[in-house]
C-alpha cells in the first residue's frame, strides 16, 4: 500500500487521527486503519515563531493541498492553535465524526511500555518522567497529547512508543559495559528507536516471503535523517544500533553515531568545548554534514559527488563512503545475533531512494551472500518496493516505511481488544 493512496470518504468510515508532535512541529494524518487509506494529512512547522505555517492535504493529493497563512495572526501560532486549525478543517470536510481515537507517536517509553497504551494521567506522568532520557522528544509529545485531549476531549488517546518494539532485546544486547548500578538505579541501557518503522517493514518482508512474521529472521536498515539498523529474530527485535538515545549507532545526517567516548573528554579538556557545544557538535554538526562540510542531505551529496567539476565532489564522496561503510559494518556485526538470515531490508528516505547508497553498502556484504541486481536496484525508488538482489543472493528488499499506518492500526487494535474485554 502506498503512502500516497487516495480515496473518497464515505461518512461511515472509521478513522484514527495520528499525531506526531515535535518541539516546533506537528505532523498529522487521518488514516482508515483497515485499508491504510490516508484521508487527510499535513504538517504544521516553525510553531511559535513568525514563520509558523500549516499545510493540510486532503485525500493525500497534492492538488488538494492548502497552506494556511499564519503570519497575519496576532497570537503566536503554537501547537494548540495548529490543532484548532486542523479541527476546523476536519469540521469543514465533515470528517470529525469519522474519528474514533487519536494515536500519538511517543519517542521514549523506557522499560515501562512494550505495547500500545491507553493514555491516562498515570501514563502521562510516566512519559513526563521519561523526559530525562529523551529531553528533546517526550516533552513535545506531551504537548501534542495535552492539546489533543482538549481538542478531542471525548476520544480515547493512545500512545505508540518508538522504543516498544525493542523491549524484546535480551540483556546481553541492551546492557552497556558500565557499572551495573547505573542500569539499576538510573535506567542507563540501550532502548533503541525507529521501532514502528522496523516493525512495519519486517511485517511487509514476511508478506513478501509468505511466512508468519514469527518465523522471520531479518536485518532492517532504516536510513533517513536518523539511521538505525535492527536485527529481528523470529519476528522480534533482538538488537539495534541506537542506544539510550538516538545518537548511538551508525553515522547519520547530522549525528556522529558511535565514537570513542574519550573524544568527548578531549574536546572538553584539550579543546575547550563546553558540554552544550559537544552536544550540538555530536547531534547537529557531525555525520554526513560534518564530514562533507557541505550538507546533511543525501541528494545534495550524491549530486556533488557525481559532478566532477564540483570542488566539493571528493569530500561529498568521502562522507558517503564512510556513511555506507559504517552501515555495512553494523549489518555484518548483527549477523552474530542470528543462526539463520532470511534477508536485508532498506527503508527510510535514503534506504528507499538512493540506489548508490544501497549498492555501496551491499558491495561490502558479499560474505553474507548479499549481491544486488544493478537493474532492479536502479529501478526501485520513489515508493516502489521489492527485492533488488540477484536470484542467487539472499533477498534485499526495499520497503517504503509507513509509521503512521502502524500507529493507526495499533490504536484501532487496542480499542478493539479493550472493547472485547468489556463485553
Ligand atoms: P527521512 O528522514 O526518512 O525523510 O529521509 C531523509 C533523507 O532521505 C535525506 O537525507 C534525503 O536526502 C534522503 N533522500 C530522499 N530522497 C532521496 C533520493 N531520491 N535520493 C537520495 N536520497 C534521498
Q: How would you characterize this protein structure?
A:
Helix content is 37%, strand content 18%. It folds into 2 domains: 15-161, ATPase, nucleotide binding domain (Nucleotidyltransferase, domain 5, 2-Layer Sandwich); 211-403, ATPase, nucleotide binding domain (Nucleotidyltransferase, domain 5). Strands 5-4-3-2-1-6-8-7 form an 8-stranded mixed sheet, sandwiched between helices. A 6-stranded mixed sheet has the order 11-10-9-12-14-13, with helices on both faces. It is globular. Helix 1 (79-92) packs across helix 3 (138-151), helix 10 crosses helix 11 and helix 11 (313-334) packs across helix 13 (355-362). It is an alpha/beta fold and 423 residues long. The protein has 15 helices and 14 strands. It binds adenosine monophosphate. Adenosine monophosphate binds at residues 224-225, 253, 297-299, 302, 348-350, 353-354.
Amino acid at each position: 500500500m502506498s503512502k500516497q493512496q487516495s480515496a473518497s470518504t464515505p461518512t461511515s468510515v472509521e478513522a484514527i487521527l495520528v499525531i506526531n508532535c515535535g518541539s516546533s512541529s506537528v505532523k498529522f494524518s487521518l488514516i482508515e486503519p483497515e485499508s491504510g487509506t490516508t484521508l487527510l494529512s499535513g504538517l504544521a512547522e516553525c510553531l511559535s515563531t513568525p514563520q509558523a505555517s500549516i499545510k493540510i492535504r486532503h485525500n493525500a493529493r497534492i492538488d488538494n493541498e492548502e497552506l494556511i497563512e499564519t503570519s497575519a495572526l496576532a497570537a503566536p501560532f503554537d501547537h494548540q492553535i495548529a490543532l484548532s486549525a486542523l479541527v476546523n478543517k476536519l469540521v469543514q470536510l465533515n470528517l470529525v465524526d469519522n474519528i474514533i481515537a487519536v494515536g500519538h507517536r511517543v519517542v521514549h517509553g523506557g522499560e515501562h511500555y512494550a505495547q500500545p497504551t491507553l493514555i491516562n494521567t498515570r501514563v502521562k506522568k510516566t512519559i513526563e518522567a521519561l523526559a530525562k532520557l529523551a529531553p528533546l522528544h517526550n516533552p513535545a509529545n506531551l504537548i501534542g497529547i495535552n492539546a489533543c485531549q482538549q481538542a478531542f476531549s471525548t476520544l480515547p488517546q493512545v500512545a505508540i512508543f518508538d522504543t516498544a518494539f525493542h523491549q524484546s532485546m535480551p540483556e546481553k544486547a541492551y546492557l552497556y559495559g558500565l557499572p551495573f548500578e547505573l542500569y539499576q538505579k538510573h535506567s542507563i541501557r540501550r532502548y533503541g528507536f525507529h521501532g514502528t518503522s522496523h516493525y512495519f517493514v519486517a511485517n511487509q518482508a514476511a508478506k513478501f516471503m509468505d511466512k508468519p512474521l514469527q518465523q522471520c529472521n531479518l536485518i532492517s536498515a532504516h536510513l533517513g535523517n536518523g539511521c538505525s539498523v535492527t536485527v529481528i529474530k523470529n519476528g522480534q527485535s533482538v538488537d539495534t544500533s541506537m542506544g539510550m538515545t538516538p545518537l548511538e549507532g551508525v553515522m547519520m545526517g547530522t549525528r556522529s553515531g558511535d565514537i570513542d567516548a574519550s573524544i568527548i573528554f578531549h574536546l572538553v579538556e584539550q579543546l575547550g568545548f563546553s558540554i552544550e557545544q559537544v552536544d550540538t557538535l555530536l547531534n547537529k554538526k557531525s555525520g554526513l554534514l560534518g564530514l562533507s562540510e557541505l550538507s546533511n542531505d543525501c541528494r545534495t551529496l550524491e549530486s556533488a559527488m557525481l559532478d566532477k567539476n564540483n570542488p566539493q565532489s571528493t569530500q561529498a564522496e568521502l562522507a558517503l563512503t564512510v556513511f555506507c561503510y559504517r552501515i555495512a559494518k553494523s549489518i555484518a556485526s548483527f549477523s552474530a545475533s542470528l543462526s539463520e538470515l532470511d534477508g536485508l531490508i532498506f527503508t527510510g528516505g535514503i534506504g528507499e531512494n538512493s540506489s548508490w547508497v544501497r549498492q555501496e553498502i551491499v558491495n561490502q556484504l558479499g560474505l553474507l551472500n548479499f549481491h544486488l541486481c544493478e537493474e532492479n536496484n536502479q529501478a526501485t525508488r520513489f515508493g516502489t518496493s521489492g527485492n533488488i538482489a540477484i536470484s542467487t543472493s539472499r533477498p534485499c528488499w526495499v520497503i517504503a516505511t509507513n509509521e503512521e499506518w502502524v500507529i493507526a492500526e495499533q490504536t484501532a487494535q487496542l480499542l478493539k481488544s479493550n472493547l472485547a474485554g468489556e463485553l
